Amino acid sequence: MQTDFIVGSLQLNSVSIPVISDFLNFGDILGAIKARWAINRNNYKINPGLYAIGKPNENSNIFVTANYKLSFDHLRKNLKNIDSWILILDTKGINVWCAAGKGTFGTEELIKQIQQTKLVEIVNHKKIILPQLGAVGVSAHDVKKITGFHVIYGPVKASDIPDFINNKFTASREMRTVFFPFFERIKLIPVEIIGHFQYLIFAIAVFFILAGINSNGYSVDKAFDGGLKAMVMLLAGFLSGVAIAPALLPYIPVKQFFMKGAILAYIITGLLIYFFPGISLFENISWFFIVPAVSAFIAMNFTGTSTYTSLSGVLKEMKLAIPLQIIFAFIGLVLWIIGRFI
Amino acid sequence: MEHRYLKNVVTLKLDVEKCNGCKMCMIVCPHNVFIVEERKAIILNKDLCMECGACAKNCAQEAISVKPGVGCAAGILMGMLKGTEPTCDCTSDSGSSCC
Ligand code: SF4
Ligand code: SF4
Questions:
Q1: What is the ipTM of this complex?
Q2: What is the number of structural domains in chain B?
Q3: Which residue in B12, B21, B2 sits closest to B61, CA to CA?
Q4: Residues 3 through 32 of chain A touching chain B, CB cutoff 8 Å
Q5: Which atom of ligand 1 sits closest to the CA of residue B22?
Q6: CATH (residue range A6-178)
Q7: Buried-most residue among A210, A260, A291, B32 (CB within 10 A)?
Q8: Which domain holds residue B56?
Q9: What digits encode the pLDDT tens for the residues A212-232?
């Protein structure tokens, strides 16, 4: 576990509270990039508890966050020159919103940390500031009832904290809203790629093996040619669902995610088949079933990464999407195999 | 450009009788579903609700009900395969999103 952000300690009521830096060093930035590519992602946490930033005293604000290092880094970077306390909840190294959904960033854990760190003895006020998205797991009135601390929900993004403070601790409508802009969607693509990559490799391998089958038995040359073609088509479907659909998300004029993926796949397949036709009509048609099925499935999985889909909505979409994807993949595969024989 | 998901699917309900106009729901909702006028909450944009459950959790009057969950297809599939509730492995991340 990394601890080089601790730059000193503060003695208070005979307890020692670590003081942390408000500056992200090279290691922190590298760590963030690695986490984006899902490297070491599951072990990117810090110790829960109370930390100090700058020179806080008994009147300073208390900010709460998760023990996922990226959440913690976002917070401390935005508290530059703002003397404060930081209370870290044990969310098992998961970011605030996700942890709040699971309940680990929750009422119980917050109460436990308030009591364990003896917060009442450290400050002489009763205000504690939480990121707004923590509200999914925390019930402010219950925290108040048990600990006396009044939960104030801050902005969604830590970068709005200075404005939030200047604004007498109220977050504007803008600060309270979760947006999902282009740049943020792009940042999430690497993790999507890594998450689905193994299935792509598996599918490509299967097609390479099947491609050798023909009316004369098995041909390694054909396996290679057909497999290569299949690889290009599968890769197209993969990229369509994993990258293009997320990037163009609001511009594709349908609401269901699987349809977004499917529509893109039809355009891409059309272009590819036009310029690089397959060995038979059957094969050409087969790709119009397989590529959309692949792209639709992966795009559908982006519902989990997006910031606005409801469980009820996704369930409704899946009731239609899953059977369609299975039927399309099946028809496509049958046509493709028939295409190997004529 | 604003994102819009399916219409008329969410489980969000508000019992105006119980509401005392405290504005908590308005403060915690990440999609501005509520406004409070004349000390009563109003559901303004029901279709923007993502069923995160924050409003219901923070309404001390218990005026709001919603079946909370993650709108995550992979999590739902995983749940179906394992026979559990939808669970999300949260491998993606960012400060902005889940799953
Ligand atoms: S949180 Fe509950 S009581 Fe407060 S305004 Fe909203 S509905 Fe009304
Ligand atoms: S469940 Fe979440 S998104 Fe829906 S209204 Fe409540 S706070 Fe807003």
A1: 0.90
A2: 1
A3: B21
A4: none
A5: 4
A6: 3.40.50.11600
A7: A291
A8: 13-82
A9: 887 787 888 888 888 999 999
